[in-house]
What we know:
By secondary structure, the protein is mostly helical. It has one domain. Helix content is 73%, strand content 5%. It is built from 12 helices and 2 strands; from the N terminus they run ααααααααααββαα. A two-stranded antiparallel ribbon has the order 1-2. The protein is globular.
Amino acid sequence: MTALLMASALALDWLLGEPRRWHPLVGFGRLAAWLERRIHAPDRWRGVLAVALLTLPPTWLASELAALPDVWGAAFSTGFSTAFSILALYFALGHKSLHDHVRPIAVALRRGDETAARAATARIVSRDAEALEIAPAACESVLENGSDGVFGALFWFLVAGAPGAILYRLANTLDATWGYKTPRYLEFGWAAANLDDMLNIVPARLTALTYAILGHTRQALDCWREQAPAWDSPNAGPVMAAGAGALGIRLGGRARYQGEWHERPVLGVGNPPEAADIERALALVRHGVLLWLAVIGAGAAAWAWLQTSPPDWDRLLNFLWENLLA
């Protein structure tokens, strides 16, 4: 059932894309800005309070709606809960929007319009537009947002259903808003940044493994092991190192943020990416989604078969002992 819900939400996301109006996350962002204006202080506990006020009530409400009591009839309750779960994951996903924001960069580069490509890249990264390397910045964004906007939401939906996907997406949004190491957010944003890090520990590494499986596997695993520990983010490092190694491109290096140059570790191997590599990075995310659906679907089918036709474990263990272990 979970695999079907995930496939339905992914299909809805691919068909409709990101809502242009009335997106719940836009409203959530405005609510976060309103709350920040009223309780902000350079204090970690203020930040903890803000994160709790913004994430716990929606997560509780989602858990209630996803398991609607059988008040108006079993069919209605089941249908409502199913529809709510699909919509919750749909709003948490950013698969199609990732393509919609990044693909124009590759198109502009192919036609030689660097100005348009730079402007499109500046809309999705936080570094200074006039100093960024366009194709590397776009590839980094694809690989990292593939984890944050796609696989992380799928993982938490698989683990905890609609409440898990919603909590994950809200935490991710708060980290993108408050999780900066600036004088204003260093203390206040500590809770948002650490909650996002904790929620991404497992899905980020599953994403890195997915990238490795679908690309140059040994090379990706080597880059992950050797390069990721030097990256400043404990979750983005494995994702981008494995993704760069899988694609055979070089990422990282020098970048300018708010007028200051930062020397970042080099990730991956080979040459810096070009326009075609942006499309390859997007394909890596798409193929990863299909792989996850296939694995989850196969696992669900195997579990259902075991429940209906449980094997004779004693006979199986005896066979293994007599033929393989003895």
